[in-house]
Amino acid sequence: MITQIKDSVKEIYENYDASHDFQHIERVLQNAEAILETEPTADKEVVRLAALLHDVSDKKYTDNKDNENRLIDSLNISEEKKDHIREIISSVSFNGGNQLPAKTIEAKIVRDADRLDAIGAIGIARTFAFGGAKGRKLYDNHEEVRVKMTEEEYRSKSTASVTHFYEKLLLLKELMTTEKGKQMAEERHAFMENFLSQLKNEIEGRA
Questions:
Q1: Where is the HD domain (predicted)?
Q2: Which of 91, 96, 101, 170 is least buried, going by the fewest C-beta atoms within 10 A?
Q3: Looking at domain 2-203, does it have CATH number 2.60.40.1930?
Q4: For the chain, domain boundaries
Q5: Is the pLDDT of residue 97 over 80?
Q6: At residue 207, does pLDDT exceed 80?
């Protein structure tokens, strides 16, 4: 079943830019497997399926949940597990700080796994890949970083890529929910801070 869903979701993710392609899904799965090793009570099948499906109806790329509903309905699992997967998917997105609570250990694992792929070296690469696909500035020293915003405000304003670090990425370390996720986030967070420091020096002609 996992193999079947992988083949199905690959076709969907091929329509997205490099920041949310199937390689992103493979890395999220890899992160989830690392966290699963420290969470023996978690339902591995639910975690893997939710990780595979969590972006098929991403609001950045589509206005409906047709793909998500179609693929979940096709799974040969109980209705209870299907509902659980839907709940996990709904709790993954950051939504400008307005994320829904991750109520189960499976939801916490998938959310941490996805957020780990938003930070560190790969997070930096993905941020600029998405910004490039959307025609955003690399940086804007005059742009105000928003501390509080609605989901609509978060999604509607095309901020510079560097601004996104301060509005989301640098916040994620403290939002990790599993112990393994917290440990994995430390080095990635520090790498982003070093990158931004070097970038600032280069922008200002001090490096």
A1: 21-119
A2: 101
A3: no
A4: 2-203
A5: no
A6: no
For the record, the structure tokens of 120 come out as: 């560190």
Residue bearing tokens 């409906």: 64
- Rounded to 10°, the helix 79-92/44-53 angle is 50
Cα distance between residue 14 and residue 18, in whole Å: 9
Indicate left, alpha or beta for 135 from its phi (over 0: left) and psi (-120 to 50: alpha): left
Tokens describing residue 190: 């520090």
The single residue listed with the structure tokens 């990780």 is 51
The model's pTM: 0.94
* Digit-coded pLDDT (tens) for 173-198: 999 999 999 999 999 999 999 999 99
Total length of the chain: 207
Question: Which residue carries 């994995």 as its tokens?
Answer: 184
**Residue 83 has which token pair?**
């509902």
Question: What CA–CA distance (Å, rounded) separates 36 from 44?
Answer: 7
CA angle 105, 71, 5 (to 5 degrees): 80
